[in-house]
Amino acid sequence: xGNILITGATGHLGxxxxxxxxxxxxxxxxxxxxxxxxxxxxLDTKGVRLVxxxxxxxxxxxxxxxxxDKLYFVSGSDVAHRSRQHENIIQAAKAAKVGHVIxxxxxxxxxxxxxxxxFVAQAHLxxxxxxKASGLxxxxxxxxxxxxxxPMFMGDQVLNTGTIFLPAGEGKCAYTSRLxxxxxxxxxxxxxxHENKTYEIAVAEAYSFYDIxxxxxxxxxxxxxxxxxxVETFTGTLKQVGVPDEAIMGAATFCQAIAQGEFDFPxxxxxxxxxxxxxxxxEFLKNAYQL
Length: 291
Description:
Residues 3-284 form the NmrA-like domain. With 291 residues, this protein is α/β, with parallel strands linked by helices. Helices cover 44% and strands 14% of the residues. The protein folds into two domains: 4-143, Rossmann fold, CATH 3.40.50; 145-176 and 202-266 and 279-286, UDP-galactose 4-epimerase, domain 1. It contains 13 helices and nine strands. It starts with a strand and ends with a helix.
């Protein structure tokens, strides 16, 4: 199987993949790349080997990638700089002769500048293009939108207010839990036959916020309805109650993408990879809201 390195190891997804690999008795082959070693005590206590690497520092990446057979490449979170960061990682992986790169991309319908989330998509599109052109063995995991963002979008008081207030129209999305995405990553890292393949990492059913309101009503016994304001009404209302502009625009942009069907890609490849049924949205909401 060889040596496995997880980048972004102190982030939510990186940690989840590491925990999944530990549960599969892969600790001996496992390393975690972090930018700041002093912030990785939790990983150190689990027996995970730590290496220092910075997405902005090509030379540090080449050093971190030495002897790596399988690299789990978590896409960068710095939207302004991640295209360059992704180039650094791919170039360093090639220089270090990494055996297999597993890249965490994302699902999308539109691949040009007309997408509401073009600013997010471009770095992923570039990374996929560079990986395929590099000659490296690869697997691309096109992640659905995290189910884990729903409590952030809807708010932790949605059951008390009884209203989901988001400009997503009737758009549907195959919301998938981060833990199931991590399980898919671990399956690719520890399995065979995934070379030079692209997988859609999504559950088999897509849901609108009307569907989500109905699920919350069923689970909680409280009436929850979905108000689907236009973007102008949404942004104006949130500004009036003091929500920061950056948060408003982030939510509005992704909701516009949902409304346009950018994430409406349910499928069965996730289930096939992890060898079980993924967590359903109903199960996720029950756990997230402790119902």
